[in-house]
Amino acid sequence: MTDLDRLAAEKYVLLTTFRKDGSAVPTPVWAVRDGDSLAVWTAADSGKVKRIRRDGTVTVAPCDVRGRPRGTAVPGHAVLSSAEETKRVRDLIKRKYRLLGRLSLLGSRLRRGERGTIGIRISVQE
Asked: For the Pyridoxamine 5'-phosphate oxidase N-terminal domain, which residue ranges apply (predicted)?
């Protein structure tokens, strides 16, 4: 099983982005497989989006809901998704996380609107 397969099968992954000073900022997120990459979905104005916009260097590790790592972190490179790609990520989240995913997406759309969230595509370095 590849790192990508293992991470895509997890309920939560710990996405770690890096500040300008190099300090790590870990965040537990839902993740889905999107072709040869991992995809996550988040608020468009979040700190992780700003950090990825500046530098796409990330690590990804399996974790629990509170962000406690449950495995080894894997290096990767993250890029922000277009509106079309973000829609696909939302659909994949609905499929994987079922009712909870649908409710989370609905609540987010009501609070932030369609443009208030963005997909992040992560290429995992095997």
From this structure: 6-93
- Enter the DSSP assignment of 11: S
**CA–CA distance, 109 with 15 (Å, rounded to integer):** 23
Percent of the chain residues topping a pLDDT of 90: 88
Average pLDDT for 50-76: 97
Residue 32 has pLDDT above 80, yes or no: yes
Residue 42 has a CB neighbour count (10 Å cut-off) of 21
Specify the pairing of strand 37-43 against strand 57-63: unpaired
Helices (H), 31-82: 47-54
Work out the end-to-end distance of the chain between its first and last CA atoms, rounded to an integer number of angstroms. Answer: 11
Asked whether the beta carbons of 116 and 105 are under 8 A apart, the reply is: no
CATH T-level assignment (fold) for domain 3-124: Pnp Oxidase; Chain A (2.30.110)
